[in-house]
Write a structure and sequence with these properties.
mainly alpha; two-stranded parallel sheet; 2% strand
């Protein structure tokens, strides 16, 4: 546990170079490629992903308080949280899992770049733009990065038949090694669980 805490602290203090791994290029069948292209290209509809205004207010208040030290600007912080909730829900993912992944991958740094070239909040590798996106897709754009990251994680979960441990390993390019999945799960459960655990 001490090692995980030290690693998370190092990630939060790291400069703009992210310590994340990198998704590996794997050939996709034409049908999978087409489905992923459709998933990243459709426009965001003008609806909320929350079931009610009360649910939205409660979730945003809880998550905003936890993210405040990392992103002091309240307006931007709330915009990011709404986008995370929307894109995660749209992909069938737990929004708190996505926040845990973002914490480990980029430390919530929009312009983070890993040594392998992964970009943005969710550390998406540029080859995905060529594979399933459009040439002008900018992986430093908040919504684009979240759309790609959530779509890719969903794809890996589908490949691994719902096995989150293996899907996270694929996402990070560290399949079979426990450190990364354990760090994301620890961040998810310890920092972003909702409703908050009772002490």
């Amino acid at each position: 546990m001490r090692l995980i805490g030290a690693t998370l602290l190092a990630l939060s203090l790291a400069p703009l170079v992210a310590l994340a791994g990198a998704q590996k290029y794997e050939p996709l069948s034409a049908s999978v490629q087409a489905a992923l292209q459709k998933s990243v290209s459709d426009k965001r509809p003008p609806v909320s992903s929350f079931k009610s205004p009360i649910e939205a207010a409660n979730w945003l208040e809880a998550m905003s308080a936890r993210l405040q030290k990392r992103i002091p600007n309240q307006e931007y912080r709330l915009e990011l949280l709404r986008a995370v909730h929307y894109e995660a829900t749209r992909a069938g993912l737990d929004p708190q899992l996505v926040l845990g992944l973002m914490q480990v991958e980029s430390g919530f740094r929009k312009y983070a770049v890993s040594s392998a070239g992964a970009r943005g909040y969710m550390q998406v590798m540029p080859f995905w733009v060529k594979l399933i996106g459009r040439p002008d897709d900018n992986l430093f754009n908040m919504r684009t990065n979240l759309r790609y990251g959530c779509t890719i994680l969903r794809h890996y979960l589908d490949i691994e038949k719902g096995d989150l441990y293996r899907a996270l390993g694929r996402y990070n390019g560290s399949l079979g090694r426990p450190e990364y999945p354990n760090m994301v799960r620890a961040a998810w459960h310890n920092q972003w669980s909702y409703p908050a655990k009772a002490n």
